[in-house]
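Hello,

I think I submitted the pyridoxal-5'-phosphate job twice by accident. Can you confirm which output corresponds to this input? Input:
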Amino acid sequence: MDEARHYTNFGPLVRELESRLRQRFASHTEHQMYVTTVSNATLGIELTLNSLNLPAGSPVLVPALTFVATITAVIRAGYVPVVADIDPDNWLLTPEIAAAAVKATGARAAVVVATFGYPQDTKRWSEFQKQTGVRIVIDAAAAFGNQWVDAADVPVVFSMHATKSLPAGEGGFIVSGDASINMLVCQKSNFGINLTPDAGVPVGYLSSAGTNAKLSEFHAAVALASLDSWDEQAIQRQRLYQRYRAVLEKTCGEVLTWQTGPAPTAPTSFCLRLGSEAARTNLETLCQEQGIATRRWYQPLLHRHAPEIGKIVVLPVPDAEKVATDLIGLPFFLNMSDTQIELVATAVQRAVSHTPSLHQTT
Ligand SMILES: Cc1ncc(COP(=O)(O)O)c(C=O)c1O
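Support: Only one job matched these inputs. Its output is below.
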């Protein structure tokens, strides 16, 4: 960077990263691929939504169970979020659920989430988009390695946050087969300054009110290093996930429920349902006493946040509410030892069998 005197503004490392990612996604599909880096996935979703040019205030579907960034991006893009339900088994917003929600609300777009890294079927969503005219953006923030982009007309946004499988500290990128979407996102990430001679606005003039969402060369350097070790780390993640899950299934398999779908290639979290709200509270207490961190991922559900976030439309979400009662994220990190897995499994076993907390027994 010092030699090139290039620290940001679409420097050589950002270009190299985009090119390597493009090749990676292109090797999984027959259509042309475009990759545009951004400073984080939240802005990536916001700018991708902006590039759809929907009328201000258009209703946009989001699943009730997702990270808050999904809904803040919709609001900041100038649209009205419509909170929809999820499938009770794969915990995803599906085309069937979306079809009913569109009918009920007239939604013009949907931000469809690859929840906990479980992939969405881009070809099915492309069909849905063609049939309904509802524009689809996939929030695959946590799904790099699990989510591919098989349909050219469905843009997919990935995160490179430190907690993701391709970490750069902060960062994100948009993958699509539609050059115009990627060009618009790139332009909007650079304040909205027009970069194309034939756009009807002179090059260098603002063509829209964009923002600064460029990925720096520093972050691109870290992302390139992450990419170099990605395959090896993905194998370690898979092995850890499988070992961990097998131990839990052996100790208390009959009461636990797992998200259904293809086995994750590069898992970064470890989520499951404990069968009851009481078991979850019990496990949280047991873990707290032993210094084991747990997370109620994506809770509260989107519509249960403060009304100050702005106007939102809420559809009935009984399945999301059900999943939210006993969903828990357990510790998951590279080099987690068998002893640490056993420690967590013992706590889960005690919690689901409603054994009183350690504190109460000692
Ligand atoms: C589903 C989902 N969407 C969006 C984001 C936001 O990504 P970023 O931190 O890169 O803005 C996350 C981050 O965890 C996420 O899980």
